[in-house]
């Protein structure tokens, strides 16, 4: 699983100019099953996306295609982790540690 942390690198007006394209990009990756949750950080200096089901190389390629990234208004920090414990409602997302 991946935590994709976005940090805005441009004024919020520049971010807002790309918002419709960014939302369409998010929708596409939700439809493919890769994205699980997303939203703005508080304070609003970026966002967070939870993703799974692809390799590190694939998630990096997905991030490169974000209209925010293409327009140069954000930077990504991607953290991979193994979700070995979850709430009951998220049990289908649990993973096992590699041997």
Descriptive notes:
This protein has four helices and four strands. The longest helix is centred in the first third of the chain and has 13 residues. β2 and β3 form a beta hairpin. It is 32% helix and 26% strand. A four-stranded antiparallel sheet has the order 2-3-1-4, covered by helices on one side. With 99 residues, it is an alpha+beta fold.
Mean pLDDT: 96
Major sheet: 4 strands, antiparallel
* Helical residues, percent: 25-40%
Count up the helices. Answer: 4
* Separation, N- and C-terminal Cα atoms: 17 Å
Given the C-alpha coordinates, what overall shape results?
A: elongated
Short description:
With 99 residues, the chain is of the alpha+beta class. The protein contains 4 helices and 4 strands. The protein starts with a strand and ends in a 19-residue tail after the last strand.
């Amino acid at each position: 699983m991946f935590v994709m942390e976005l940090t805005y690198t441009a004024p919020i007006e520049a971010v807002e100019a790309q918002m419709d394209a960014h939302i369409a990009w998010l929708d596409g990756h939700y439809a493919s099953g890769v994205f699980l949750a997303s939203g703005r950080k508080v304070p609003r200096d970026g966002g967070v996306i939870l993703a799974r089901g692809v390799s590190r190389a694939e998630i990096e390629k997905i991030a490169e295609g974000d209209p925010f990234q293409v327009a140069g208004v954000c930077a990504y920090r991607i953290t991979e982790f193994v979700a070995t414990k979850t709430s009951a409602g998220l049990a289908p997302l649990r993973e096992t540690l590699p041997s």
